Amino acid sequence: MLNYVASRVVQTAFVLLVISFIAFLLVANIGDPLAALLSADATVTERAELVARLGLDQPLLARFLHFLGNLLQGDFGLSYRTQDPVSQLILERMPATIELAFVSLLITIAVGVPAGIYCGVNPNSYFGRFIMLISTAGITLPNFVVGLLLIAVFSVQLGLLPSFGRGDVVQIGFWSTGLLSVSGWRAILLPAATLSTFQVAFIIRMLRTQLMEVGQSEHIRFARARGLSEARIWYVYAIKNTLLPVITMLGLQLGNIIAFSVVTENVFAWPGLGSLFLQSIQAADIPVIAIYLIFVGVVFMVINLVVELLYPVVDARVLRRQS
Amino acid sequence: MTTPLLDVRDLTVTINRDGRPITALDKVSFSVNPGEVLGVVGESGAGKSITGAAIIDLLVPPLKRTGGTISLNGDRLDQLSPKEMRRVRGGKIGFIFQDPMTSLNPVITIGRQLCDAIETHLRLGGNETKRRALDWIARVGLPNPDVQFKRYPHQLSGGMRQRIVIALALCANPSLVIADEPTTALDVSVQAHILQLMRDLHRESEVSMMLITHDLGVIAKMADRVAVLYAGRVAEISPVAELFANPSHPYTRGLIRATPMPTADGGVQLDQIPGAMPGLGAVPPGCAFNPRCSRAQSDCRSVVPPLVTQESSAFSCFHPLERDVA
Questions:
Q1: Among the four A67, A269, A303, B288, which has the fewest Cβ within 10 Å?
Q2: In the CATH scheme, what is the code of domain A92-280?
């Protein structure tokens, strides 16, 4: 077990190193920081001074180590666009996106898992088929269409929920949370529901397929032959066999939402990382884009690490494959 | 005459293929007496496993029981509701599956699986349930029950897993155990150990057993009486000694002779039955065995021979083999 954890952590660290290097190459090779930072009438001496100050006269590897050292100390560089520290920009936007992602994950689990189990246990029932029909829509409709539909119904027609913004925000340390106010919850419902549409549909289909397959297996037949109740057979004996892929998918999807909810954030004017990313691309703000790239890498790797560390808890056979 | 524990009459199972019902099991009748081991032999596809599954209503669709009666201790199993049937499964009739590699749940510990089975039927409460589970792990011959209790199936060898399967089938004290090819998936050396274990457990607990196998060696070692199935019908039922010494049905004799046996001069005698058993839906009219039978006559080709009882044995053949006069 200890070996397993150690090997996963080392792998994660290595991948992060590679991502940082790519991000560094981006900063080092795209755009001209001198042109951006120097005034038009700067002298050659001023120019040489700046080159020395930014370390641009150093070899590539030395600059990368310097970059890495700064990263580890929390110095992420300055935005070309706003001249603010990148760390501050990201920290301002991150809570909104992460809260949105987790609320949509909650919706996915609360809706998708029970519905998926129902469809897997009763694949031929009318209600099960109805769910599958609806889920086809969830898979095929693009996010922004779902978002606009929800706004049209719940904001415009019914006037129940706001169509943009985060509502009232409470500041706790560096984290600004919208989950402590009623208006915050009202604001997060529509974008979170939009993001979870695809996830819910996906989880339903996956659980159904998995359960139908496990339901045919010999050990489930044997469990029946021992007279165990149907509830125990499905909810304990069968479900546990389907958890690995489900956890994997949920983890990947969570990463996807945190990193790439650009479209949905735009539709709902959600002040999150997605809109920051969009603005940075439009302004060719390389340092922000590079740090965002690393941030996305960290999110995926950390989620992946958590998921992989959960594997042996669910299925002890994972450890055997290791050795 | 003793009242049988399990009595199966005219059990019929059909499979629906393209809207056309095909008979997989055709009016199979037999009984198992208290404390007895009934061997059920036949080739692959003869309907042995289907018979076992039909008794506890565990047929895999599209197989379906369409006729006959099954009674256990006088209770009609074929008329039970699904909920009542659940109490019979495991509680009154234990079922030992063939392949220990696939029949244990891979993500649940041995101990949990045993406790669940015990708790479902005996309702003893946590501590006593666990004590019984540990006791069963020891009874089926696994060392360090406390360690095994926490282990997962993949941490055990095939033989050890089959011991756990046996414990799972027996742990709620059923009065009958149906063992479906319990040793077929195992190495020969392990087979012997498992058979010995089943004999010991049978002797200790007086449980009746229906032992399904294609291996006449296993039958000779374990069974009191034997039912021979052929193409979904009972060919012959006899006490084991009589069956081997004086088979009545030509198929039984063919089956015995097809088993390699050393002769007096040290060679190996092996006679095979010509042809192959008809598959589902291809059973010829009359006796199912008639195309392969050297004694077949015109009546064998038109009328299905009924199962007739003669002293301690029964057979379905118009022209049975004569008994050797001792």
A1: A269
A2: 1.10.3720.10
